[in-house]
Specification:
Elements (H helix, E strand, L loop, with lengths): L19 E2 L5 E4 L1 E3 L2 E8 L2 E8 L5 E4 L9 E5 L2 E15 L2 E12 L2 H7 L3 E6 L7 E5 L4 E5 L12 E7 L1 E3 L3 E8 L2 E8 L5 E4 L13 E9 L2 E11 L9 E4 L7 E5 L4 E7 L6
Parallel strand pairs: 5-10, 6-9, 16-20, 17-19
Antiparallel strand pairs: 1-9, 2-12, 3-4, 4-5, 4-8, 6-10, 7-8, 8-9, 11-12, 11-21, 13-22, 14-15, 15-16, 17-20, 18-19, 21-22
Length: about 280
């Protein structure tokens, strides 16, 4: 049975965002993994809480209760349509580092996310706000390393399976990868903000599962890497017609992930004693 948090709104949106980051090359942001989501401590508008670090989002979202969004605009999320309102933010502090001169942001109601996680979620940090070319997510040490070279990520290559994925950006910077699911090649968003995998309801007709149901299955990232027992949910993704599903990065159970934006590559590392093949 899925926990409540696995039923929460998973943010997935796009809008243009430009930022001047005060984060230097090789700096580290600590995080906590909660129900498959990366949470980082931060502050905005004098409020201290936690942000979701989400590669499925292109910009900055700040929590605002729904009644304040009645005059907002409609945006597409993975759970359908939500109300949002444009806003301006001078700066955001993330684990002591400053993101400044943010040109655009949105307000969206994140109350349900806070209730389901039991945490004070004050916003969502889209990965395009971190302007450096390389983002390393170290799940073992629970830290994000922002840098311009892979020298900041120390990996014992003899002790790891290493997978290189080609990355294609769509919708103003949403990273996607090709995966194989039940003998079909599909395009999935590569999403650190998703607590479980999502597959589009169109595949229900192929007998995969019933609509809105959850099931476990393996996902194949290439011919040698089969990740078993991944949790999937069937959902309507008609508003995201360029993708067939959403890949939960935490569901891969990897030790480290490097997103190389400059070269459009994603590197995934598993220790060789892990049962993934």
């Amino acid at each position: 049975m899925m926990s409540n948090v696995q039923k929460i709104l998973i943010i997935l949106w796009s809008f243009s965002a430009t930022v001047l980051s005060a984060i230097d090359d090789g700096n580290i942001i600590s995080f906590e993994l909660v129900e498959g989501m990366i949470l980082v401590k931060g502050e905005v508008n004098g409020k201290i809480g936690e942000f979701i670090f989400d590669t499925g989002s292109s910009g900055l979202a700040i929590h605002s209760i729904e009644k304040n969004l009645k005059d907002g605009t409609v945006i597409s999320t993975v759970d359908g349509i939500s109300m949002a309102a444009n806003t301006s933010i001078d700066k955001v502090s993330i684990d002591g580092f400053i993101l400044s001169e943010i040109q655009s942001a949105i307000n969206i109601d994140l109350s349900k996310v806070s209730r389901d996680t039991g945490r004070d979620i004050i916003g969502v940090i889209g990965w395009s706000l971190l302007t450096e070319s390389l983002i390393t997510i170290d799940y073992e040490q629970q830290r994000i390393i922002i840098g311009k070279s892979r020298g900041h990520c120390v990996v014992d290559y003899n002790q790891h399976h290493i997978l290189k994925l080609n990355m294609r950006s769509i919708r103003d910077d949403l990273p996607t990868v090709e995966v194989y699911f039940r003998n079909q090649k599909l395009t999935f968003a590569f999403d650190t903000g998703a607590p479980l995998n999502i597959i589009d309801k169109d595949f229900v007709e192929l007998g995969f599962a019933n609509a809105n149901s959850a099931f476990n299955d393996q996902i194949i990232l290439d011919k040698n890497i089969h990740v078993r027992d991944n949790l999937f949910r069937v959902q309507d993704l008609e508003h995201f017609n360029e993708i067939d599903g959403i890949l939960s990065v935490s569901g891969l159970n990897a030790n480290k992930v490097i997103i190389d934006r400059g070269n459009s590559r994603i590197f995934v590392f598993w220790k060789k004693n892990m049962d993934i093949q």
